[in-house]
Design goal:
Blueprint: H1 18-28, H2 43-60, E1 66-71, H3 79-91, E2 99-102, H4 113-123, E3 129-132, H5 142-154, E4 158-161
Parallel strand pairs: 1-2, 1-3, 3-4
Helix pairs in contact: 1-4, 2-5
């Protein structure tokens, strides 16, 4: 199923030279820290962590600047994932945001240029948060997901999802 307004063929593919992507990732990597060994968080724990970060930002910034993100396999249409994420933006009456799509499939989040661009924007405080359809747009692995949430929260940002972590 392909929507006439947004298809992989008509999507704006922003191509970065490898050196540009590597530069962004190099800037982000030294600031990210590995989490100390502790019990693994469950999906409800991760949802509570994400929602606490969201509530913290929204309490001081009721109309946050956001970026919409989707990750799909190469050749897959991102229209449904983007529409669901935009629905969340509309329900909260947040300002419309530009969508960013990585056509990489489930790869290491550090290898996705559009996600790196949005994380860099959070780090620079150009946006306050990232909106996605589900946590699988970032990663299905709890440890990496927790690390990503903590990284975003440590920089004063948030992640908002249209579906709960328990709906994977």
């Amino acid at each position: 199923m392909t929507s006439p307004g947004y298809t992989p063929a008509t999507a704006t593919h922003t191509r970065y030279e490898p050196t540009q992507t590597e530069t962004v990732l190099a800037r982000l990597s030294p600031r990210s820290t590995r989490l100390p060994a502790r019990r693994h968080m469950t999906n409800p724990d991760l949802q509570a962590l994400r929602e606490a970060g969201l509530a913290s930002v929204i309490s001081s910034q009721p109309r946050p600047r956001i970026g919409i993100y989707a990750m799909v396999r190469d050749g897959q249409d991102p229209a449904v994932r983007l529409a669901v994420a935009r629905g969340l933006v509309l329900r909260h009456d947040w300002p419309e945001a530009q969508a960013s799509v990585d056509f990489t499939g489930m790869t290491d989040p550090a290898t996705r240029p559009q996600l790196a661009r949005l994380l860099d924007a959070v780090d620079r405080r150009a946006i306050d948060g990232i909106v996605a359809m589900s946590r699988t747009d970032l990663t299905h692995l709890n440890d990496y997901y927790e690390e990503t949430l903590r990284w975003i929260h440590a920089r004063g940002g948030f992640l908002a999802l249209a579906t709960a972590e328990t709906d994977i």
